[in-house]
Amino acid sequence: MANELRPCPCDIGDRLDYGGRGQEVQVEHIKAYVCKPPASTDKAVIVIHDIFGWQLPNTRYIADMLTTNGYIAICPDFFVGQEAWKPSNDWASFNDWLKTRNASKTDKEVDVVLKYLRDQCGAKKIGVIGFCWGGAAVQHLMLKNPHLKTGVSLYGVIRHFEDKSDLLHPTFFIFGEKDDIIPLDQVTLLEQKLKQNCKVDYEVKIYPGQTHGFVHRKREDINPQDKPYIEEGRKDMINWLNKYL
User: Is the Cβ–Cβ distance between 112 and 30 less than 8 Å?
Assistant: First the structure.
């Protein structure tokens, strides 16, 4: 397995040893991780996982962090039972694996989750965040789903959406300066397209020195120089959600 050929360097090396405060539920045909704050709220956030799937402890940690900030958080299995990517898999097979897991084909599952949040959780204001693969799904949803209020795309794979920038809802884009999978020229192009076509509020922010996956990294293994940017990214995400939800 040649690491230099990795098409998506979502390093699992910093997997959190974290169990989660929420519970797993069945929502129609989808399994999901749900965490609710102690006080009742009508605000919820859908968390869209990266290639490592809905059970990744790092992602559940972020879902729980949303809950400590007053949101119902739900992380559904958007692979719908198909296996998540494993670090032991051969990266040469990654593109074939990805063909059966399209971030632009999450609409059916999102509709199911939206209904669950409204009917079972009392949610009225619903946003979405996503990481990498999930960040691409967020951009897709912000372009077409009328029922979501806002989105945060964290190092979302943007090359699939270069010709689409007329967002329906306020969207915050988080990128790392040193991200090997999302070159800065792609980010610059995204900004240009948004400036030309986008009629809602948006922000594109690049965090100095950061690599792919930095916002949901394992805390104990953070390089001292990275920690402020990781904390800033998390704070920016929460502030954006607070502003629009």
Answer: yes
The packing angle between helices 227-244 and 57-68, to 10°, is 50
The three-state secondary structure class of 159 is helix
Residue from 64, 132, 169, 226 carrying the catalytic annotation = 132
Residue 212 falls in the annotated catalytic set: yes
Within a domain: 89: yes
Q: Is position 9 within any domain?
A: no
Q: Which of 75, 212, 216, 226 is catalytic?
A: 212
The CATH number for 150's domain is 3.40.50.1820
What pLDDT digit, counting tens, does each position of 24-80 carry? Answer: 999 999 999 999 999 999 999 999 999 999 999 999 999 999 999 999 999 999 999
216 is catalytic: no
Confirm whether 30 is domain-assigned: yes
Alpha-helix runs per DSSP H in the chain: 57-68, 94-99, 107-121, 133-144, 184-197, 227-244
The answer to whether residue 27 is domain-embedded is yes
